[in-house]
Write a structure and sequence with these properties.
Helix content: 55-70%
Order of helices and strands: HHHHH
Keywords: Membrane, Transmembrane, Transmembrane helix
Largest sheet: none
Protein name: Exlusion protein FxsA
Strand content: under 5%
Number of strands: 0
Organism: Nocardiopsis sinuspersici
Radius of gyration: 30 Å
Length: 187
């Protein structure tokens, strides 16, 4: 997925320029420039309004000690839409208008909430799998100690209680240690 995003972002300027040339050939260069300038002015107006509103909501929330009443997603969508409108081009303008228009924002909010829930669920599943691989439960799970299944802060100790060392712990070399005598020069 990230590769597709990178490729789309690399192709966007070429698509925008091609679309500007096509629209310029269809309606004329002056009208194309007028449309791009009007989209820029609309984007600046949206950014100013969204910034003022977000600042006012944040200030009110800080003064009252409560979270902002409208949430953070709407001002962020308005600001992102305003930025997309300021960027010259028709593809970015359409995306910006989708984020700015009041009747499309609820659908985008719903889609973003679903995406975020799926992402959080996937991250939780990966965390649980990682804890199982390491041989301990997720911290705070029922029947678990504060440091996992064994109560050990760094997981299970290898070889403790007759258990084999957990996977991914590296190779263990058994041996003995004999200290050197500082008086012995060894020659």
């Amino acid at each position: 997925m990230p590769l597709l995003t990178v490729l789309a972002l690399m192709a966007l300027p070429f698509v925008e320029v091609w679309l500007m040339i096509a629209v310029g050939g269809w309606i004329g260069v002056p009208w194309t420039l007028a449309a791009l300038v009007s989209l820029l002015v609309l984007g600046v107006a949206v950014l100013r309004r969204a910034g003022t509103r977000a600042f006012r909501d944040a200030d009110g929330a800080l003064r009252s000690g409560e979270p902002p009443r409208g949430g953070l997603l709407d001002p962020l969508m308005l600001m992102a839409g305003g930025i997309l409108l300021v960027v010259p081009g028709f593809v970015t303008a359409v995306l910006g208008l989708l984020m700015v228009l009041p009747f499309t924002r609820p659908a985008l909010r719903w889609a973003f909430a679903g995406w975020a829930q799926r992402r959080v669920r996937r991250m939780q599943e990966r965390m649980e799998e990682e804890f199982v691989v390491r041989g301990s439960g997720a911290p705070g799970a029922p029947g678990q100690g504060p440091f996992g299944g064994t109560g050990e802060p760094f997981g299970r100790r290898p070889g403790a209680g007759g258990e084999a060392s957990p996977p991914n712990r590296g190779r263990v070399i058994r041996g003995s240690f004999e200290p050197e005598d500082p008086d012995d020069t060894g020659h």
